[in-house]
Amino acid sequence: MRIKTYYGILSIITFVFVASCTDNNLKVDLQINNDETPVQLAVGKFEEMVTEKNIEISAADPDLIISGKIDTSLTSEDAYSIRQRGKNINITAGGSTGTVYGLNHVREQLEQGKRELSHVDESPHYSFRAIKFNLPWSSYRRSEALQLHYETCRDTVFWKSFLDMMVENRFNKLTLWNLHPFNYLVRTKSYPEANSMSNEEFAEWRQFWTTLFRMAKDRGIETYLVNWNIFVSPEFAKAHNVATYSIDGNYFTDGDTSAIIKDYTRESVKQVIDEYPDLTGLGITLGEAMFGMGAEEREQWLLDGYIKGAREASRKIKFIHRVPLTKGEGDSNSMASVEQITRKTLDTLTVFEGPIIIELKYNWSHGHSSPNLFKVHGGKLTDAYWNPPPTNYKLSWMVRNEDFFMLRWGQPDFIRKHIELNNQDYVTGYFVGSETYIPAVDYFTAGEKGSWKYAFERQWMFYKQWGRLLYNPDTPDEFFANTFESRFPENGNSLFEAQSLIGKVPLIIASYWDATWDYALYSEGMSSILENQNTMKLISLKQLAEKTPMDTLLMSVQEYVNKIESNSTLSKKISPHEMADSIETFCKRAIDLVSPIQTDNSVDLVYEKTDILTWANLGLYFAHKLRSAVAYQQFVNSGNQDFHKQAIHHLEKATNCWEQVSLLTSDLYKTVPLQHYNRNEGKYFHWNKVFKEVKNELDWLKNEVHKKEN
């Protein structure tokens, strides 16, 4: 049999682990003469670390002296270098952020037991390393799964933790998304009716935003508010009988381009810029509630409202222009023409502090699929945005995750490959985040929690790998392995290797499934909503057999069966059987790695191990189901009952794997609201609930032979 690999799915990861520190008498003299707030906060984090490790901060006869200086000739404010000579460790940085990263680098090395540091020269690969964070108020999607985060997202204690995580992982942009943020920020002079809050309530909101923007700035993080175009506050809509979609949530409709809405938008933009000096920028997403508008009208709307307000403001801000994802209903322009029209506007915008950032979804709403670009939201993309090369803007790709929220994930090779394929001069970075999930309240964990408080802390490796690799894609596996080892001594090696293996499971599923919008796939639950349907269901055997994969490296079941039946030469694509064999190989390897781990009394270790085992069994389920789909298609084509028996055999194996998933997750995970289910049906998710569909499908397959005979 030919042996093929799909983005390294058969690769085995190796690394060198550095033993943890046993010297508890280390004295460190910290000579960082920089009083800028980001640096002082990093010094505070350093002092917390050494206290935990029983390392003494002392200027008296120190073992290590850590000093820092600024060198503005470095390529970026985020750049830094480290040199050690004897006991002197010198950090040279391009600015305060580089000093923070350099100091954090030294802290990480000491945490991992190192005392002799290698020379380091680091500078950011991408300057735009952003988190997409959807807010639960005036949210684009609405359901219990999102609204339950309301109070937590109003709590600056939560944001302190989240922002500190961003700094730790070298994310430098926080983008906050909702339909209409302005009435939560300002009470406009001309339209006070748009805000019905009491003075006391509004003062609390103002204090919240002021504190959040300042906290981010104090950490060297830029903040952006991104809204959806012609939406207004419900109070404004009711008062003026305009934009009723702002009340009823019917986004897929014609936009209300009333003069009063343009003026309200203009004034809102101006006041937000003027009243919140620590806010870095704003963003707009042209699409929803614009169905009756052509490309020219959409861009004119932007100029008449948003841009006019920005011009009238007292300072320049930065700007994110989410370029049109589809053309408006009735728009006579082709999508290629829409891109050209949008580019014309972008090329002439000079009111903002540049460069403008344009955003496009990588492989639609499921960026955690193939690292190769096959489509954006709406389908194919021309080269209009980068040919000829832009001078006024840069592109940042949106890698959405609507596929896994509960199970911990990491896969550094996938992220590195993404970056390798998107090294063009016009690309300045990435957004990473979700539309259907807010990483605030941990509403997943059943029973005792571990060291984490918030949901994002459960996915610590997800953020660490995305952030650190966007900053430096050459960050080695050894770094991530050592961070595992710092948390789980003697088990970090196995945990890192196993997670890197099973981290491929959702990527392969999404690459095969060819999902589009948000609910078209939920890889963690092996479920999908198909077009013209309204219910999230288990991906069926028939659907799998009929599916044409998104990734052109992968062969469909039908193509494979047709070639076998016609004795045709197999193509260079990876066949379903080869894919299944590969998945089974690395999933079993992951199980072998973590099964011997004794979790003792560590709740954190229980979840890390169980999540790996759960992903592995989900991968095995998919592998067995692929084999069953091949045999089923052969049975459909020929009526040969031997193929039917093979299909049942493989699906029975798949069902057993799902039973393992149910057993692993029953006591550790709650049955939870899920946006994919919860929007209309009020249904909740757990793998146990899906197990009923899994068993029903096996019963269905067993009965198919009788239908064929009749």
UniProtKB/TrEMBL annotation:
Gene3D superfamilies: Chitobiase/beta-hexosaminidase domain 2-like. Keywords: Hydrolase. One of its GO terms (biological process) is carbohydrate metabolic process. InterPro entries: Hex-like_dom2. Coiled coil: none annotated. GO terms for molecular function: hydrolase activity. PROSITE patterns: PROKAR_LIPOPROTEIN (PS51257). The keyword Hydrolase applies. The keyword Hydrolase applies. It comes from the Bacteria. This is Glycosyl hydrolase family 20, domain 2.
